[in-house]
Amino acid sequence: MDRCSRARTQRHPPRLAAGPYNAGNGAVVAHVARAYVTEQQRLGNPNAQAMSKAVAGLEASSGALPEGTVITQEVWDDVYARVGETFAAVERQWAPKGGDA
């Protein structure tokens, strides 16, 4: 059997992020941001694909949350609001200037 083809099909488990699982943890931010992007996709936001790519980069660099990690409602709400504000600011920055609004 060709060792190279077998090696390509093997997947390494995701790197697990260390705690504490608060608003300063990149994996928490990535997890909440993914939920935000999923909601934007459901709402039909035309920028959702670009948001998804940005979140994918954050997910790759931050690692995954361990199975069963609990994010408190306070942390979730704080991170969700900040993610939304950040994406809205970027959308405003790149929106067409001038014209009728």
Short structural description:
With 101 residues, this protein is mainly α. The chain has four helices and no strands.
What would you note in describing this structure?
This protein has helices at about 5-10, 25-45, 50-60, 75-95. With about 100 residues, the chain is mainly α. α2 runs antiparallel to α3 (about 50-60) and α2 (about 25-45) crosses α4. The protein starts with a helix and ends in a 7-residue tail after the last helix.
Quickly list its features.
4 helices; mainly alpha; 101 residues; globular; 61% helix; single chain
Q: How would you state the average pLDDT, rounded?
A: 88
Going by helix content, strand content and strand pairing, the class is mainly alpha
Number of E-state strands: 0
Q: Between the first and last Cα atoms, what is the distance in angstroms?
A: 63 Å
Query: In terms of per-residue confidence, which ranges show pLDDT below 50 for 5 or more consecutive residues?
Result: none
Number of helices: 4
The value of Rg in angstroms is 17 Å
Compressed to H and E, one letter per element, the order equals HHHH
- Helicity level, as a percent range? 55-70%
| Relative strand content | under 5%
> Which word captures the global form?
globular
Q: How many strands, which pairing sense, and closed or not: the largest β-sheet?
A: none
